Amino acid sequence: MLLPHAITLAQARSYLAALADQAPTLEASAAYERTLIDLDRLHGDESPALTTDGLTHDREILYATASSAIEALTAHGVDALGVELILAMLEDAHGLDVP
Amino acid sequence: MYGETGALMRSELATLLHIHRTQRRLGSESLNATALEERGVQIRQYRQSILTWSAEAVRAAKPLVFSVSTPVPANPFRATTDLGPVHEFARALDHTRQHSTAPLPSLDQLTTSSGNELVEHWRHAARAAALAEHDTNGAQLASRLTAAQANALVSDVAAITQALIVLDQRYTNTPGWERLAQPQRLGWAALATAIDVALERPDYTVDQTGWRPRATAIRGPAKPGILGVLQAEHNLLVRLQTTPNALSLRLVVDSQRQLSHGLAELAGPVDEVLAQGWRERTATYVRLQSQLRNLGSRLGGGGTAVAEASNAVARLRALPRETVVEPRVLGAFQTLFSRIDTRLADVVTNGIADQTLLHHVTTATLDGEAQGLVHRLREHFEPIPQPVCREIHTTIRGHLRPRQPDAAPPDAGHSRAQLHTALLPRPTQGGRDVRSL
Description:
The complex is a heterodimer of chains A (99) and B (437).
Chain A: H1 3-22, H2 26-42, H3 59-72, H4 80-97
Helix pairs in contact in A: 1-2, 1-3, 2-4, 3-4
Chain B: H1 2-18, H2 22-26, H3 33-61, H4 85-98, H5 107-111, H6 117-136, H7 141-144, H8 147-170, H9 183-198, H10 226-239, H11 246-267, H12 272-291, E1 295-296, H13 303-318, H14 327-353, E2 358-360, E3 381-382, H15 386-400, H16 412-423, E4 428-429, E5 432-433
Antiparallel strand pairs in B: 1-2, 2-3, 4-5
């Protein structure tokens, strides 16, 4: 894993964790958490550590940045189908998040 | 489990103590002298089985029995010369067992019905004693029991010995019978031990110790309704015997969070206290899940555990919202939850201790100073930092491990009271027991 790939992955993980922490319902939080687990599984559990310190509390911004970070993973050689499936999971989780 | 074997022994001996006309029950009116003698010898063999278990159990438990009535020397480095009544009781039991000429019953004798009701009671008691060897004997017993549990076990043996002494006196005229060696010494030692251990409160959770059949997965098609969830949760516990890797662990933790949440809603109308406990369990798993996000591992499996966990969640989601769950099923879930919590706490604690669970490196620690255009990750994992360890241990110790110790079975005192009642002297009328059978 090259450094730009690691930084993009760390950002995607951090945004997903922040979404899971801030989700208003347990179902939405669990859905974000499963998306994060699937993202880690896609990378064989060789991901950099995440941190949610200093991230915004606006869930729409977090969702948009998480989507774009996950999409950017394809540029680093990550399987495109796997990325699409994770994006679909993220969209489903966001559907549970929106009241 | 000692609870089952011990209770069977006590209840059979209590029944035998209630039977007074033993010769008639043995068939003295219909059998010839040889056949009657054979029955007497057979009963002695069964008695030998009970004596053997009693001697072995006391010998194994006595390191944990500390007499409160024996004075201890002021100097802690000087060994006490008076070891307490339990040591004399152990010696008396050994002496009686060694001086009994009856051999131990064979497997055929233990498992084949004799056709006589009285002999059958002895056979059941002897069979329970043979099975109890699995539960209470062995060099490891002292490491498995607490002192209070050892007191309860020795108290049980003392009561059983007293019953054997009373029965020995009653069977004196049986053809082929042999009296116990030094019954007075054995009786007094048993009585002194019973009084000594009764000064401390006995702990009947000893009933839950001992051999249990190994739990296996429930195979076959999914059970209907809530039982299917219970089946998958049971199978998850069985599959967790294999240590899961970090990803599998996170998926199992996620499943427990969803199950606790879903089942708390179903349990609410039936048992609000239990439902509240499961809501707290959900919060514990939410906390643990966020603490495990940065942990990874190279070792472990857990694929089958994850499959069972997802089965449980899928079956729970398929249940209609108006499903009513019986209290018995809720109790089964509570038992499984406690065991799964304990197992997951062990997995995480052991993983941190032996460093099979590690921490993902942060991007700040990546190799940014390497020469050349291509910068690769130097390491993927590092030992878990102390603050993270502390947080995880706080969650596990404070919330995940069951707070309530195991309670004694509700009927633990029943068979003990039954045997003690049978041992009590009975009211007589004209020299005869008015309650004899």
